[in-house]
Design a protein that fits this description.
The complex is a heterodimer of chains A (371) and B (325). Chain A is an alpha/beta fold. Chain A is built from 15 helices and 8 strands. Chain B is an alpha/beta fold. The chains are: A alpha/beta (371), B alpha/beta (325).
Amino acid sequence: MVSKTQNAKLDAKKTLEVVEEQFQTLQILNEVGEVVNEAAMPDLTDEQLQELMRRMVYSRILDQRSISLNRQGRLGFYAPTAGQEASQLASQFALEKEDFILPGYRDVPQIIWHGLPLYQAFLWSRGHFEGGQIPDGVNIAIPQIIIGAQYVQTAGVALGMKKRGAKSVAITYTGDGGTSQGDFYEGINFAGAYKAPAIFIVQNNRFAISTPVDKQSAAKTLAQKAVAAGIPGVQVDGMDPLAVYAAVHEARERALNGEGPTLIETLTYRYGPHTMAGDDPTRYRTADLDNEWEKKDPLVRFRKFLEKKGLWTEEKENEVIEQAKEDIKEAIKKADAAPKQKVTDLMSIMYEEMPQNLKEQYEIYKEKESK
Amino acid sequence: MAQMTMIQAITDALRVELSNDPNVLVFGEDVGVNGGVFRATEGLQKEFGEDRVFDTPLAESGIGGLAVGLSLQGFRPVPEIQFFGFVYEVMDSISGQAARLRYRTGGKFNAPITFRSPFGGGVHTPDMHADSLEGLMAQQPGVKVVIPSTPYDAKGLLISSIRDNDPVIFLEHMKLYRSFRQEVPEGEYTIPLGKAEVKREGTDVTIVTYGAMVHESLKAAEELEKEGHSAEVIDLRTVSPIDIETIIASVEKTGRAIVVQEAQKQAGIAANVVAEINDRAILSLEAPVLRVAAPDTVFAFPQAEAAWLPNYKDVIETAKKVLNF
């Protein structure tokens, strides 16, 4: 507890102002790909930098194709990701395979790069249970639909890792709107109280469906919400892959060091609609705002940065694009080949062993399905 | 064998499973040093250490989320929800998350969580402590709901619940915690989930019940016996899934049935039992199946609690209606 009672002043407003001043946005790479913060530059090899770019380009193509597949009726539920590549992929890039990701529904690219086969991501989107059959050794949860639930579960996964003495962390994602949920606070508070190795990412893309971030909270930054839980918080330029990487890398090191969780707010933007189920962003966002954010594009600035270093060419980019298109085609084929989902399948995955009521219903549906 | 109250039997079951399986973790509000507000976890932190038996911050949803997350790391969590009226705060973790983990992952993951929680009327608690919310939970596929009526059953059922690989809601009636003692064996034994017990055999009417109402029903059966009516009393023990076979076998023998629950009449376990009997044994029935239940208000203010809760007199009255139909 803070002491110095004798000198304490009753100035709650000042206390807040002092806290808020501390939360500044970490940027390493500016909008035109120049390094503006050499001291914070993460230690990445040329190959790693190229790999990170490859993943961002690949995921942009995956997003474009997913939107078009959705429009053709060949994908189900889909939440567009373009604009958030740095926030999503540079954070995942700072992880090891043993680290466990608890994604929100927009965080499919991270779990694909963490090992979920693409065709399973497509099956999950289509609403086929094989999409959720995570392969052994892939440390992820299925994308969470309930905003905030992944935050409280992350405290549990991280506490479990601590109890096992594992050299790994749990990482989770939510959006700006997610920070208004009680579970958001319960998750960071539990992890803080247990000093559990967790990283909580808030991808502040300015809008929770249509509600702007300034209507979510009086808090000037979302990163400062960490203060209430007594854990470190940091705000980074979420369109800057190097800043995102650096923040997650540092949080991971501290978590592995037994120093507990970190909250990271990434300032980002989703170019597309909330989901493909009828959301129209022109109802709540101006074209000016869209343009302003598109100028900050993570791919554009990272491409410029790499080109200057002689690490990226148009040819290289086209190779990645072709590879992505090829992989998507193959994955869709594989998803198409999955067996038709039956009601009896659903009954068999409700419990380890079906109770009597379900057993009886199983026989009825088995009979129906045989016709 | 030792004479134990239900609360002692519960502590004993937790001790047995904490010893048996290093993945079992017991946690919740005040369960550590304090041993739980009802002392259900008395001495366990001392015996098994803070790593296995620990306090949580005061947040039910956080407790539920912690349990789900620990399941994902291969643990077997036994969280306590301090009073079951607080379950609304943790409904998503139970119904939205734990209940669906196996389903959502196509059978790859499971949530072997036992949510223990006190509930039940007759002890003059403040609001939101005593409600019978088992019907709410029973509507959720993916969880099992267990309610013991005796110390012996509490221990055997709790051990089975902890060992079960699916989530179990284990509800402990506060009135029964210390109301009587019973012989409870040392060490481990299990009582299968989903199996009812015929507590008293009879030939004229079947009384299907569970929890504290088992004792009201047995008392009613004794009174009915004096008047020449032979009542069979069935303790469901697990209210989801229910043991349909035991109920139907009894109804086919007696031809008459009533269902007794402490919960309000609307929806709920008793309505489900009535429907199952109608589905399966309508031709054996000599009378409609009636229910004894609390009225459809929110749980009674303590000043009216005694009148609100069903008791053995209500059971006798309703049994007579079907006997004299």
